[in-house]
Amino acid sequence: MNFPSELKYTEDHEWIRIEGDTATIGITEHAQNELGDIVYVDINTVGEALGKGDVFGSVEAVKTVSDLFIPVAGTVLEVNPDLDGEPELVNSDPYGSGWMVKISLANPGDEDGLLSAEQYKEFIGA
After folding, report:
1. Residues 6+ apart with CB under 8 A from 72
2. What is the pLDDT of residue 110?
3. Residue 36 vs residues 16, 59, 60, 89: alpha-carbon distances, Å
4. How far is CA 32 from CA 19, 45, 47, in A?
5. pLDDT the model gives residue 95
6. CA angle, 45 as apex, 43 and 51 as ends, to 5°?
7. What is the mean pLDDT, run by run of 10 residues, along the chain of 126 residues?
8. Domain ranges for the chain
9. Going by C-beta distance under 8 Å and a sequence separation of 6 or more, which residues neighbour residue 28?
10. Does the 8-108 domain belong in CATH 2.40.30.20?
């Protein structure tokens, strides 16, 4: 299983890549493995200012629907347009073309409480 070291992780199994005052967010390889085949991604929060831990959308797999939680406060700038036609990108490339949203950070430094790759691996027992 892959745990890119440049990312931060949450106990809700989201990852975040921070570049300046913008962040890209998706779900981890572990999360997509647990969910199984992703059939639909529902995110309709573009333009919304969300607090850390708020739900920014949901992901539907064959057997379940799971909420997606924003790891840091920010405003949703963009949803990955490719997921409409190809939700399986979350399964095949969770850290690349399967990203979910881009946000502008409300409070730079919010990510300080998130997990490193090593801490996340320990958290999930990998």
Report:
1. 16, 23, 52, 103, 105, 106, 107, 110, 111, 114
2. 85
3. 21, 11, 9, 12
4. 24, 21, 26
5. 97
6. 115
7. 94 96 96 95 97 96 95 97 96 97 92 94 94
8. 8-108
9. 3, 9, 13, 14, 15, 94, 120
10. no
